[in-house]
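Subject: Zinc metallopeptidase

B.,
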Amino acid sequence: MYSTGPIYLILILAAVAGMIIQWRLRSKFSQYSQIGLQSGLSGKQIAELMLADHGITDVRVISTEGRLTDHYNPADKTVNLSEEVYGARSAAAAAVAAHECGHAVQHATAYSALQFRSAMVPTLSAVSKFMPLVLLAGVLLLRTTPIPLGVGIVLFSLTTLFAFVTLPVEFDASKRALAWIDKRGIVTTQEHAMAKDALWWAAMTYVVAALSSLATLLYYVSIFMGSRDRR
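Prediction pasted inline below.
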């Protein structure tokens, strides 16, 4: 007989950890945003310089609305920096701008984990539209047939796989970013430590998301297996 008790606990802990990490990330970002770079470069300038240093000439650096909405879009080859990063001249801005360019470098060098992650996007986009309904139907119809829930579990496993594939992509982008800003002299030793700390907290949000997805998957699996035991 499978028990969902421990999995419930894991889900609760993951939710609490996620909230704490999000709060910590925003706190760190705000703190490091107040500290100006000695180099005096803005997020936009840092991004353009990193792209140029890696021989990337077909990627644009643009400003996007929102807070912590920074991302690299491989579809249109743009590094999208939030307003507080695009024009800012701080340790936080340097970290974020270089990190997003790290993804552009991954794209340009055909980094395998990024390629695999990008290949999954179309499938996940299609699956995400009806997966919640399949899982709900699976739970409601479990006494009649386990098939819908089994299908839902397979679909949800793709989401969990995507979350874990994202981890090496994010950690590698941060590694590239920190190595470059240090080698290029963009930051001082103290500023480098701040940038590293900010990126670490950002990475932890992905770690918690992946663990939460895994716990959710195990929750549905435990329900599925429990229904089989009762037959």
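The chain has one domain: 4-36+91-229.

T.
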